[in-house]
Amino acid sequence: MSLDRGSEAGPLASEESRRSFLGKFASVVFAGLVAPAVLGDTEPVRAGPAAQAEGLVPVVELPEPVEGEHPVQRMMEDLQRALQKPVEQRKWAMVIDLRKCTGCNGCNVACITENKLPPGVTYRPVMTETHGTYPNVARRFVPRPCMQCEDPPCVPVCPVHATWKRADGIVVIDYDQCIGCRYCITACPYSARSFDSGYFYGDFEGGERQPYELLPSPEYGENRTRADGGSPIGNARKCHFCLHRIERGELPACTLSCMGRATYFGDMNDPKSLVSELIGQPNVMRLKEDMGTDPKVFYLV
Amino acid sequence: MKPAEKILWVVAVVGFLIGLVGLVQRITGGHTVAAYNTYVPWGLWVAAYAMLIGVSVGAYLIVALAYGFRLKALQPLGRVALLTALSALAGGLLAIWLDLGHPARFFKLFFSTNVTSVMGVMAWLYVIYGVLLLVLIYLTQREVETGVVRTLSLLGLILVVIFGGAEGSLFGVVGAQALWESGLTPILFLVEGALSGAALVLFLAVLLGRLEADAGQLLRWLVLGLLLGLVVLEWAEFSTALYAGIPARSESLRVILFGPFWWVFWFVHVGLGLLIPLLLLIFAGRSRAGLATAGGLIALAAISTKLNLVIPALVVPEFEGLKTAFTGLGLTFDYFPTLTEWLLMVWVVSLAALIFLAGYRLLKPLASHGG
Fold first, then answer.
1. Distance CA B356, CA B124 (A)
2. Are B164 and B193 in contact (CB under 8 A)?
3. B195: phi > 0 → left, psi -120 to 50 → alpha, else beta; which?
4. B 154-213: CB under 8 A from A
5. Kindly report the CA angle at B85 between B82 and B90, in degrees rounded to 5?
6. Is B339 left (phi over 0), alpha (psi -120 to 50) or beta?
7. Which structural domain range is residue B149 located in?
8. Which residues does chain B have with pLDDT short of 50?
């Protein structure tokens, strides 16, 4: 019936009435939001004792996500403990709690920023999975870094020994050895390898390369710049758990940047580490376990 | 020079000149001029490489039959077949060399060979095969004693079967790609290669006026047999996989049969590459025009089988969510070759044709070995 009226009155009249309705609706919502504050109908936010003592702006204290020590602090201690051991006694692993991942892509952005990744290269896309049909719909977000497989299918296919699994389990690429055949990319069951075609963001932003694209990438501690057209342009590239950060005692960029504290990193050979504790839980799964690749990225579901 | 040979020269030179644009773009633009990317890392150039190597395998089959098994009827075609095998090998290697991210590092394939990689082993097999072809051309030109040529031809046949199969294994061992990972893949490569190579030799032999009646009939039945063999193998591959319905595999087959480029399978492969040649070979197999058309169509459509192997496997995402996870330039599961990719392929094939034609002009017809 309303459609008929709209068509009789013409599109302009219809647009006018919609605007009028939205305007009134917004006014009511806004009034509802600000009225309690104006009328003093709210409790003041409680500040922590330290903040009150120093006269700082009061903030709500966030709940501790994990009992005991803060997970970042604990992961840092795990990392330091692992680095004291010989490299072959470490086994780096990542745990991603899918119940906590909000799909914010913060890890992806942190990874791009850390490794100065160009267009067309991604180490940690966050996949969105939707299950069910309305009204019974569930959605979850699945970050997909390199699985750092124990038996990586990408390694034996490389014709020139340009990629291998390190003693600590991280699969790496020698950019100077890689000939860019891309066989390893086809062999990865997780699509976790990228090809650096040589794109620059600036090429699509007026043709000028942006300053941030000229910065060296700290990958593998080599500080390469792509501006000269050399490697890693033309190479296969992949997530390496921010090896350059690990080796200086820092957590991978994705782990540190995760605002939902959904990503954990550490040495799975260390029974005291947080990741070992999490991997031991019964709700752990890994992607494509049937492929026999034995991934070292675990998901909590 | 016969009119048909002149036409071949003109076509090859025109293709070479037009294709040069693609080469220049590839050199100046790197890989940004191509549509292959992170998710579809192989494209038209890999398909062209696989197709040309297959043609070389098939052409060598004629060499082995002529010189190794001493089929007198085919001996006049020995020079054509040898040159076809050599030029197709050169074209295939050129295509894959230009496809490399770092072509200047190709030498690492020989100095740092990983023997667990089929590709690493293939690099050496290509060199051995290339040298063998050059030696065979030299020996047949020098009218060397036929026993040596025979032995080498037969040894070469073993080599060709190994590396022709290994070419298929390069795809067949990739467990991540359900469409490729099959024991049938190397066999398919051998049969497809034998078919396309033999068909091209048949086409060229008619055009260059070197096809005698008995050789024509021998090649007719050989090509027909290979064609029917391929139909059986493809039926086995498609029917079992579709019946089993395992998504990773059947989805790629669905892309081949009913995807955006369904016409490549139905029109180019089945129509031009199988059905019309089959009818021509059966009903017009006694006429040279019929044989030439059948051979030419099979050779022309050979690229479709390789395109339908390489691309449908890669355009099906490993995870459905990857399609939309992080998109943009170089992060898409859609692939269609760019104009540059087509032009470069035209250049490579034209160059291979020019190598063949130049060789055909320079080498003398063989007296003791025929052709």
1. 23
2. yes
3. alpha
4. 170, 173-177
5. 125
6. alpha
7. 38-323
8. 367-371
Q: Is residue B279 in some structural domain?
A: yes
Region of poorest pLDDT, from A10-19, A109-118, A164-173, B333-342: A10-19
CATH of the domain at B215: 1.20.1630.10
- Beta-ladder partners of A95: A264, A298
Question: For position A59, what pLDDT does the model report?
Answer: 53
Q: What span, in angstroms and rounded, lies between the C-alpha atoms of B265 and B259?
A: 10
Closest CA to A104 of A237, A229, A260: A260
Is B338 among the domain residues?
no
**A120, A178, A196: residue with CB nearest B331:** A120
CA distance A174 to A172: 7
Chain B window 21-80: which residues touch A at a Cβ cutoff of 8 Å? 30-32, 34, 36-39, 41-42
CA A17 to chain centre: 44
CA atoms within 13 A on the CB side of B334: 6
CA B302/CA B195 separation, integer angstroms:
9
**Partner-chain contact A189 B175, CB within 8 Å:** yes
- Closest residue to B100, CB basis, from A181, A190, A233: A181
DSSP A222: -
Between β-strands A163-165 and A284-285, what pairing exists: parallel, antiparallel or unpaired?
A: unpaired
| CA–CA separation, A142 and B319 (whole Å) | 10
Test A157 with B113 for CB contact under 8 angstroms.
Answer: no
In DSSP terms, A193 is beta-bridged to: A238
Give me the amino acid identity at A33: L
Q: Which of A243, A271, A254, A207 has the alpha carbon at shortest distance from A72?
A: A254
The token pair that represents B78 in the structure block: 């020995």
Euclidean distance between CA atoms A297 and B3, whole angstroms: 66
Domain A71-300, CATH among 3.40.50.300, 2.60.120.620, 3.40.50.720, 3.30.70.20: 3.30.70.20
Residues 6+ away with beta carbon under 8 Å from A136: none
Q: Indicate whether this complex's ipTM tops 0.95.
A: no
Higher pLDDT, A50 or B193: B193
Token digits of residue B201: 């030799």
Peptide bond between residue A232 and the one before it cis (omega within 30 degrees of 0): yes
Per-residue pLDDT reduced to its tens digit, A184-208: 999 999 999 999 999 999 887 777 8
The CA dihedral of A235, A239, A245, A246, to the nearest 10 degrees, is -120
The neighbour count for residue A45, using CB atoms within 10 Å, is 10
A114-135: pLDDT as tens digits: 999 999 999 999 999 999 999 9
| 8-state DSSP, A216 | P
CA atoms within 13 A on the CB side of B43: 26
Distance CA B158, CA A180 (A): 31
Side chain identity, residue A154: C
Report the domain count for chain B.
Answer: 1
Residues in chain B: 371
With H, G, I as helix, E, B as strand and everything else as coil, classify residue A85. Answer: coil
Longest dimension (CA), chain B: 66
Q: In B, which residues are within 8 Å of A236 by CB distance?
A: 101
